[in-house]
Amino acid sequence: MNLVEKIKEKARESVKRIVLPEGDEPRTVAAAKIVKDDWIAEPILLTPETIAADAPRRERYAAALYELRKAKGLTEEAAAKLAADPMYYGMMMVKMGDADGLVSGAVHSTGDMLRPALQIIKTAPGMKLVSSSFLMECPDRSLGEDGLLVYADCVVNPCPTAEELAHIAIASAETARTLCGIAEPRVALLSFSTKGSASHALVDKVREATEIAHSLAPDLALDGEMQFDAAIVPEVGASKAKGSPVAGRANVFIFPDLQAGNIGYKITQRIGKASCFAVLQGLAKPCNDLSRGCSVDDIVSTVAATAVQARQ
Ligand SMILES: CC(C)(COP(=O)(O)OP(=O)(O)OC[C@H]1O[C@@H](n2cnc3c(N)ncnc32)[C@H](O)[C@@H]1OP(=O)(O)O)[C@@H](O)C(=O)NCCC(=O)NCCS
After folding, report:
1. What are 86's strand-pairing partners?
2. Are 53 and 27 in contact (CB under 8 A)?
3. Which helix (H) or strand (E) holds 57?
């Protein structure tokens, strides 16, 4: 059974309500039918018309949104207007407990979906920031964890500090455990240097991130700074980072910034022929973004992953 099938199985154990704000988009409508028919989740399709038909609920959400954001300058009029927008209405459904999670992005850009998620859903207690993990499934089963590689952060944080990188590393290990079923995440913090082979301020940042992550999660198998080959190829790991608990056998890969992460996942997908999808981590409730080029199957997979995250 591949990763997506395993995630769907888990989702079926406890059916969650997942709101789809792009409820008149044809791929989303088709995916919602599959999700419902296969008992993966209970989909809630939103359109401006469905929202207009429930004025009391929309007004309740507008009032709650105003309370949430008035200190940031949101007026009552602006809150009322936002509450009629399916993206904001969907976020408020999740915030108010009327849905367990949200999936969007077949039409909207990543930023359009992320901003309301960050403003309304916010980070989970104890989490410093929201980031993402890309779950990459490679045809070569000798790589990572039986072919499964977790890449982060490829979606959210353009230029993380050392402390933020450390938090991304720890959150990604947790995603590897809870969503991918990887019992022993082994986390490599990637760089163009392995254990001091090059010196540069960018390398220092990754080294500092490794130290912070070690102090925050001393029991986690985590190491850096490390080049990608040293992280994934046993022979290279053994020669470049002798004695490392991670080198050559990493299954979670932390990229130093968003450019590296985003380019890295696309190379793995296009040249390495990996199948992949992304999840956000660190939000108080699960909301996930799609690529605008997504297929119906991609939407179904992301809804299933969101439903599994909602169980935690
Ligand atoms: C995430 C992103 C949308 C934030 O947008 P922004 O315009 O910088 O937003 P702001 O800095 O005004 O922050 C908005 C809110 O989100 C919060 N926030 C921003 N980044 C955050 C993060 N990583 N984790 C948690 N909260 C965050 C801010 O604290 C702020 O909260 P507040 O309004 O309650 O004070 C922006 O960083 C972004 O566009 N990232 C890249 C996304 C992208 O295009 N990815 C492409 C790859 S597919």
Report:
1. none
2. no
3. helix 55-69
- DSSP character string of 198-265: S--HHHHHHHHHHHHHHHH-TTSEEEEEE-HHHHH-HHHHHHHSTT-SSTT--SEEE-SSHHHHHHHH
Q: How confident is the model at residue 312 (pLDDT cuts 50, 70, 90)?
A: confident
Q: Is 169 close to ligand 1, i.e. is its CB under 6 Å away? A: no
Q: Whole-model pTM?
A: 0.95
Q: Domain ranges for the chain, please list them.
A: 3-122+284-311, 131-275
Q: Cα separation of 72 and 176, whole Å?
A: 35
Separate counts of helices (H) and strands (E) for the chain: 13, 10
> Ligand 1 within 6 A of 171 CB?
no
User: By alpha-carbon position, which residue is closest to atom 17 of ligand 1?
Assistant: 118
Cβ–Cβ < 8 Å for 120, 89: no
- Considering the domain 131-275 in this protein, what is its CATH number? 3.40.50.10750
What is the tens place of the pLDDT at every residue in 208-243?
999 999 999 999 999 999 999 999 999 999 999 999
Does 165 sit in the ligand 1 pocket, CB within 6 Å? no
The CA distance from 58 to 106, in Å, is 24
**Domain 3-122+284-311 bears CATH identifier 3.40.50.2300:** no
